[in-house]
C-alpha cells in the first residue's frame, strides 16, 4: 500500500524521496516551488548525518559554564526559507523535520519559542543566576539541551524586546553548534523593518545570513490554503463570517453562539496566565464569546491568546472593525491572535466590517474605523507620507489564515 501521510514515512528517508512518495499517494500535489525549497533541506539532511555538537554531551557538566566549548566539527549551514503565504513553507519543513533522524530536535512556532525564552530569563532572574553568569548564555545552554536542531515556523521580529535578545541568543546557540531551520514571510534583510533602534538588530540579520542558506519561494506560487476548501471550490465565509457590522449581523452572531452552546450553561470565567487574569465574558463548555476590543483593544499578547486557545476549541469575536495605521497596535494584536488560534486549530465565528483582505488598510487614516469614513493622512505640502510597517506585511499571512479558518476542510 502507498504511503498517505508524512507520519507513515520512515524516519531517515531523504526529504525529496518523502515528497515524491506523498505526491504519488495523492496526499499532496506536485509543485515545483516546493521541490526547489526542498533542495537546501535535502543538503542539510545529508550533512547532519553523523554531526553532533561537542557541547551536547557536556551540557550537564558542572564545568560547562566555566568555558565555551567549540563543536568538534563545523556545524552545517541551516536553512532560512521565505516567501508568500500559503505556498507550502510549513509543508516542506514538516517533511524535513519528520525525516531527520536527529533525536535532539525541536519544532516550534517562533511566537511560542520567544515566550519560552522570556519565561526562562524571568525565572533565572528570580533565582539570582545573573550574578554568576550571563543570563542569555545560561538560557541558550538550556535551549540547546532541549534540542540543538531548531526548526521555527513563522520567523518574524516585530517586538523590540525580542529584537534586543535575539542577536545574543543566536550567537550563543550557533557558537555551541546549534543548527537552525526557519520559515518566514520576510527575507532576512527585511526582518524588524522600520523597528525601533533597528541598527542594533542589523548584526543579527548578518548572523542569520552567515549561518543559514537563504532560499526564496518562486513568485506567484498558489496559496494552497484557498484550494479545495469545498468540493466545488467555494468558500464557507458566509456561514461563519458575518458582515457588515449592523444589528442584523449582531443578532445572527448571537443566534450562532446560542445554537452552538445548546443546553450547556453559559457562564463568565477567568483564566489564569502567570500573574495575569484573562476575563472571559461568556463561555459554554469549549466555546467562548468576546468582543474584538476585549481581545485586541486591551493589553494582551501571545501568552494570553495561547491560554484562550488551550481552553476553548471555538471562539466567537464580535465587532471586528476596519483598521488603519492609527490602529496599528490593535492590528498587531490581531495578527498574533490569528497566528496563535491557527496553530492551535481554534474555530472562529465572527462579525466583521469587511472581508479579511479589507480589514487592515494602513495607508488610510481613520480614527473611527467602525464608522467607515476613511481619509488619507496628509503631511506638510499636501503629499501623503507612508512607510510600510511590519504589521502590514504580516497581515497578508493573517488574511490567508482567516480565509482558511473559515473553510470546511479547516
TrEMBL record:
GO terms for molecular function: ATP binding; ATP hydrolysis activity. The keyword Nucleotidyltransferase does not apply. One of its GO terms (cellular component) is cytoplasm. Keywords: ATP-binding, Nucleotide-binding. The keyword Nucleotide-binding applies. Pfam families: AFG1_ATPase. NCBIfam families: ZapE. Belongs to the AFG1 ATPase family. This is AAA+ ATPase domain-containing protein. It comes from Selaginella moellendorffii (Spikemoss).
